[in-house]
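Let us practice reading a record.
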Amino acid sequence: MAQIDNHSAYQWHQEDWRLLRDFYRGERWVKTAGQTYLPQLEDQNTVEYRNYKARTVYLNAVKRTVAGLVGVAFRRPVEYTIGEQNADLMDDLQNFTNDGLSFEVFCREVFRETILMGRCGVLVDAPASGGLPYATTYHAENITNWFVESRDGRKRVTEIQVYEADSNNYIRQTFGTVTSDQYRVLKIQDGIYNQSVIMPDDQGEYGESSDFFVPQVGNRPLASIPFVFFGPNSLLSDCDTSPVLDIARLNEKHYLASADLSHALHYSALPTPFVTGYSGEAGSLSLGPNRVWLLDTDQKAGMLEFKGEGLSFLESSVQRLKEEMSLMGAGLMAEARRGSENSEVMQSRARGEQATLLSVLDTVERGLERVLEMYLMFRQRDPSEVNVRLNRDLSETRLSYRDVLMTLRLYMNGILPLDAILDKFYEGDILPSNMTAAEAKALLEEPGQTPEPDPDRKVF
């Protein structure tokens, strides 16, 4: 019987991963989870709880934050090279993954998963029957177990178990057919890398492994698992905390506070009519523009309205949580009150936020380079010149006209070289987003790209 267990670190982070994934996916996923995120109030029946949940406002701060960070990191195209000797393979990178994504889109997906979940993994593989290699991305929830051994003083991953879910699982279950969910086991055994698949039986129990095979490159087996772990701070197999986990937890508290506020408004904000001394049937009194109540002198009618400051505390609590999420990176979700902060505090805050993003950029860059090296290994090519560069210009400030003139003066006076000038224009959004500084320099050397020399023309 195959041993299918979840790693202890997987079990520890599983609750956080579910929170992150559900709150990123949006309101429908959060509310479908029901009492996982919104407990039912005491004495509430099923209908009352359903209405209570439906009235609750959900603000997706997690997705806005992740989308903003990904947008900043990919404000400019990914720069990558695989060496001049491998230039003929560049077109193949347009179909880089097992589901047909290009390498550029693949980079964005890996970065998004690393920012959101704090973890993902990429397996580089090739069809056993032959064909081009491809990359497969595994979410944090699907990397269920792994084993690390220490040999000659160095740690090495010797086994990885990943869960592969069928995308048509719901359809298959609806029509009563067998699902194709399975575990794929990547293992080093006797110094040789092999794969096997474990599928469930009719009772849903996972039995013996099947489809055992040994991937080869040039008719030679591999000595290591072509799998790359991605984390916000390292490429180790250890689980790390997501950079946006604190925002997700604030988002959950905001959801609960919003439920309290909406519930209170529902019962207290609407005026309620009342009649005293009335002995007839209550159903005979209806409200409307063409309805008049004729009451006796000892009877009295009025409207009950809420008065007091009780709701203001709930409103301020919801607003405070909203602002805290904004300050922690939830984009332009709200205008945070920073009037009391001086410029030094704001700069320190910005440097801290950028340090987190730069750390993820560094790690993802190194991981993407490893993935490309493994891809070239399967193609039996030299991976020595692989390089991946993501956008590091995190500020979206465009150079002003005055800055451009000053930069050009430095170049004309021989203080700065042309390469430095073009790099500055690239960072300041003077060059088009799809043009690098190197491409601009090469374009300047072509005929017709610069004005004809004119000694009478005054530049400055």
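A brief commentary: DSSP finds twelve helices and 14 strands in the chain.
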